[in-house]
Amino acid sequence: MKTITNFENKKVLVLGLAKSGESAARVLNQLGAIVTVNDGKPFDENPAAQDLLTEGIKVVTGGHPLDLLEEDFSVMVKNPGIPYNNPMVERAAALKIPIITEVELAYLISESPIVGITGTNGKTTTTTLIADILNADGKVAKLSGNIGFPASDVASKSTADETLIMELSSFQLMGIAAFRPKIAVMTNLFSAHLDYHGSQENYEAAKWRIQENMTADDFLVLNFNQAKLRNRAALTAAQVVPFSTTETVSTGAYVADGHIYFKAEKIMPVADLSLPGEHNVENALAAICVAKLSGVSNTAILSVLTTFSGVKHRLQYMGQKANIKFYNDSKATNILATQKALSGFNHRTLWLLAGGLDRGNGFEELSADVADLKGMIVFGETAPKLRALAESLAIPVYDSENVATAAVLAYSKAEAGDTVLLSPANASWDQYKTFEQRGDLFIDAFTGLEEK
Description:
alpha/beta; Rossmann fold; UDP-N-acetylmuramoyl-L-alanine:D-glutamate ligase; Protein-Tyrosine Phosphatase, Chain A; nine-stranded mixed sheet; 33% helix; EC 6.3.2.9; UDP-N-acetylmuramoylalanine--D-glutamate ligase; nucleotide-binding; ATP-binding
């Protein structure tokens, strides 16, 4: 990592631990900062704080005392999940203490060029595809950021001949100052996180910050299927590289005659993509743009895009039993995500497993997307609502206790050539702590199925 002096002998407050806060505290300590960590979890329940204390880092736990800010801090490194209306953050802003997130620190210390990926949907799949393609070509690409690997930790261990492939949330991008990726990707923009940002306009502005420090030497990959992103193309200093599934964009990646092209060069047939769904064609196009800008061979691109089985819990192909395919899309915690998943399958042979936390909404929006399904298995708090939807459309529907029993029931009903898709359209919190736990139990149930 770069040995920078920005923080040397300066008081820095790390607000909120989790993985990114813990990593930031250690990196700052290495850089000679006088670090204080403040986390709401009590000390005796806080292993991370205990570890940092043994390393000589000051920790304040069990609450967020405002008088802590009287210590004349030079900067606050805020956990992305902590909103800006938090009293500590508001007080720091009033005191004109610069507030950054950990990805800014990662940028400042990184010797590696950064490829930054943001957007509402498809970030994790696109990020993983890009890393896999670059690595397949013999390069060293490291996953980092919102994908589960703290950016500052990865940056501190990376070298100039490696590349950081960094997934970036709107929360993280609100806390940048100098951050500048060599290549940036914006997959799409839909409505999300309005409780945090206050408005769709604020949310989109936070996402757009990914390019604010980019120059004509950098590349911004944009989804031209969306007018709102196409219209932003004139608002950046970076070189815009578009992708589209609906039209020929001569300076980027596009679909024509059933094939994917990059700048008129034929790359591969769309039918050879291993991941189903129009949204995954978009993800593949974005990844191809980055790969070609990075000098990657078509051989490496094809080797990944024709075999990639998906990110765990995100339309993940698990395999088949008795010639019945199983997909795990537990990450589909809302109706839009399930609609996107359904778009990639033949509904006549598809069994949908759905249900979860009841947030008071109905499921009428799903009517057109599920109308011709072979069957549905429903579970969780919203099972009665989903059953009513299925019955109104004359779709065979069966109740099940949970996701594991739903997998077994679907297997018993499905025939050779069918597909079973877990895409719940609901959050998991009625029965499970996380969508990952829900997906893991589905995987376990699939693994335990016996050939019939």
